[in-house]
Amino acid sequence: MEFRGLLPPGPGGRGTPGTARRGPVARLTRVALANVYRFLLTPRWLGYLALTLVAAAVMVFLGNWQLDRYRGRTEVNERIDAGSTMRPAPLRDALPAPTGGPGTAGPAPADRVTWTKVTATGRYDTANVVLVRGRTADRDVGFEVLTPLVLADGTAVLVDRGWIPPAPGGGATVQPQVPAAPTGEVTVTGRVVASESGGGTVDRRAGKLETRRISIPRLARQLPYPVAGGYVLLDQQTPAADPAFQAVPIGHTNNWQNFGYVVQWWLFAGMSLVGYGWVARREARRMAGLDGPRTPTDRAAEPVSPATT
């Protein structure tokens, strides 16, 4: 004997056992999940939420910081590329004249003019040559040679004349034989470079200044005239530069590494929020008994179809 009347009507008036089984259980599941998510308002889970939001905010901040660095390095690379084809501008268009007394440095060059090409005319001060040790060219360690170019107004700009190896038979810190600078009036063309950051001493040894970093303010203190706040990386010179000098290579900055960090930090921020939601949902299903063994209450909620006799 069939008890069709106990089954809810289906298409054509026939009962659908699947509907009878799913309907009450589905409604019970929705109600159970709606109620069980109240655990998110407990102090512990509110603490988890606050921690997740703080972590995500920090990661977004780090991503934005790397994005700023990516944009800045991209602009530097663009100026390097543009400088190779631009016409040189007068030095004072990029490096304002220093206004202090002897031993002082002028204002640092603006970011927009670094790596642009300039030209200047003056006389080399060969009594104050600067050797910058620990510089590499083609994986060899040597020195960059900076010589002050004294201009007509009595101020000076440091000119990086190029790289030379240390003296033969010595170590990487042995002073090289520096080719003599041209005497008389000299015209130089090169790139504007900002002062390097970091400390380091400036010492005078064997009649030459030695340092590890091209820090214009520190070098200016050793010179008897005001010095421009940036220096010129030599490209061309009249009279011609000594062939013993090797041109200092101009390398592009690695901006794509910063872009990768941007994507990484933003992905981590999104993953932390998604992870919080996933853990909360898993906890809710566990509390509702949906991800574990069914309890007697779950089985009692299912309607039973009488057996056919």
TrEMBL record:
Chain spans, region Disordered: 1-22, 81-110, 289-309
Amino acid composition bias (Low complexity), ranges on this chain: 87-98
GO cellular component terms attached to this protein's record: plasma membrane
Record field: transmembrane: 45-65
Membrane topology annotation: Multi-pass membrane protein
Compartments (UniProt record): Cell membrane; Membrane
Entry superkingdom: Bacteria
Keyword entries, A-Z: Cell membrane, Membrane, Transmembrane, Transmembrane helix
InterPro entries on file: Surf1/Shy1, Surf1/Surf4
Protein family membership: Belongs to the SURF1 family.
Protein name listed in UniProt: SURF1-like protein
